[in-house]
Amino acid sequence: MSDKKMQVVFASAEAAPFVKTGGLGDVAGSLPRALVAAGADVIVMVPKYGTIASEYTDRMEHVADFYVSLGWRNEYCGLERLVIDGVTYLFIDNERYFKRDYPYGFFDDGERFAFFSKAVTESLQHLPEGFQCDVLHCNDWHTALAPVFLREFYQGLPLYERVKTVFSIHNIAFQGQYADTILNDILGMAHIPNAARQLRCDERSINYMQGALDYSDAITTVSPSYAWEIQTPEYGEGLDGILRRRSNVLSGILNGIDTDAWNPATDPMIHANYSAADMSGKKACKAALQEELGLEVRDDRPLMVMVTRLTRQKGMDLVTYALDRILSGGVQVAVLGTGDYEEPMRYFANKYPGTCAARITFDNALSHRMYAGADMFLMPSLFEPCGLSQMIAMRYGTLPVVRETGGLRDTVAPYNQFTGEGTGFTFANFNGDEMGDAVFRGARLYWDDHAAWDQLVQNAMAADFSWVRSADEYMNLYHNLHPEIDITKPEPVVAEPEPAEPTAVEAEPAAPASEPAVTEAEPAPKTEQAAEPADDAKAEAPAKAEEPAPKAEPAKKTAAKKTTASKTAAKKPAARKTAATKSTATKAAEKPAAKATATKPAVSKAAATKTTAAKATATKTTTKATASKATAAKTTAKKPSTASATKTATKSTATKAAPAKAAATKTTADKPATAAATAPKATSAKTAPKAAAAKTAPAKASTSKAATSSAAKATVKSAAPKATAAKAAAPKAAAQDSSAATPADKPAPKAKSVSAAKRTTRKR
Ligand code: ADP
User: Which partner from 134, 487, 576, 752 sits 20 to 30 angstroms from 281, CA to CA?
Assistant: First the structure.
């Protein structure tokens, strides 16, 4: 053992507070600090974007400059240093590539991030005195070429011999796939057969992330569940084969959140501060938020919010499908986000004034107020590598309603009505009715059992989502790569205000422990009833609401009704589940069991098994393209001139033009009943892609086409899991619509469109 510290270079395309478009920025903003607290020396390398605030750029110190070769080019690279909280940031400066008004979304992103990766690798020779890189930790496709360059171009140099590489997948849907002309023109690797072979993903394309998966010494992703999900064709986005082959070096380490920045007790951006011990401020936050958003200010309505990119990944297909039922059932909904589903959100806000609000913008301060003011947080993702929002919500005592996938499965413990345990409400299959049932399980508890609700809130707030545990896991990983370096923790650890219990479920805070017994006796029928089918929205209206919900007749729905309803509900999903269960049950059963984290009670594991099974069955196609590409294609086809379109399309190169067409064609073809009936053109334009996906047969057809055309490598696959859901959903839509209520007669709560903000959300 030496007494050398573990010295880590952490490369990321974004890092809060300098630049953030989503979770990656949060992670790169807080993990390095936690690593420092865990005993490492850390340098974070980030592009010096033109958008970085002058309060930071003014304090940067120029430490080096050199030239980086990129194919036939020789590009300037400056290194600008800034030290914050013990973490050294080195900004990679090249104005031609980075002095633009947004991080991603340009035609030359492939070149820009190849440069970034090469510059990071080259920079290891220009680190501050005394810093000898032991581990180069790269994140997502933007930095994926660094391990490739390192091994192919720098391996012989003594300085690089000791450098081990770690590659973290934050979202496998974004891979950096480009025409292979780039191999020679930009990467300068066409003459290296090994590199060319390992980067190539088809006869015309190369894939940056694929390169990293082959070249890195260790691979991580951001939750244990996602680590095994991406080894399956349903989630692997075409890279599952490589990940299975490299599963011995693949691990899942759950992200944390910045518990200082997200702390209801000290948050200066919320209406009133509160803590688990004194929740009175949360009520005030709710009333203030309802008022701010133009919702009816009343506490007998559970307020459910979303703060999210409005994309397929985030489950917006389910949301648009089920919103009529939810809103007419007496639940208020507010959405903050931008993306492909802006029009449907505006539509619902118009249709249900006072009950639904949409803020189509990226607004960090408002997001704080929404996390604080809401009762529930909806996150029904199609896939979710980790997800930070649900953790933030729990920290604010806002109970998440999530689909059991990826990090959502690992962080949210489903409510157990018999024990009172849990931190939220979950559902297994990607199905709008199941999501609606989960929402109403939450709503019913809110209406009917305050003690149980309060206990859940306490459980959620006591969960430990700090970075401490994750940082320790990363340190262990680094240590495995460099066993000669001791990783003893320094005495003062990161100041974490929260207790460090290992899991949410285990944490039984100060709240009345006496409640559960009561809860156990009663809830069963209630919960069943909550799982009522969509055609009876009334049954879901607040039992105690003095004033009827928009259309729903409140209270009267009674036990009798509920009983039948619950039976019906039980039947519906059954078909889907059964089908799903048979095929992959075995596989799913092994994996979750092996990897399930301590956070999850047995119940959730079982449920999660179903999820996987369902997806596995549904997915019949095997095209490699990514969900993101599908979106990109669609967006490109529709609004080629907008900033967001350009951005989304980025990762696509010329090769993606074909999928774009395909997606566009589908779009018009298969509109789900829901969209047609309820959301005029608004929904139609944006929801349609999922509809396309929903059609199993066409999906298959296009798959085979895609297989033959190298250009059309897109899309069908990741859509497949939805097929079942969307199909099954369609017939119900009509019923829902009819029950859905009185048309909105009030003007819509102004949904502000902020085109600039749109760019901010669009990721990678
Ligand atoms: P993603 O897949 O987008 O990274 P995560 O849940 O991991 O999803 O992280 C999303 C982060 O971005 C959270 O901190 C969330 O609060 C924030 N966020 C998303 N959309 C918005 C928005 N419209 N306004 C403000 N913050 C947002």
Answer: 752
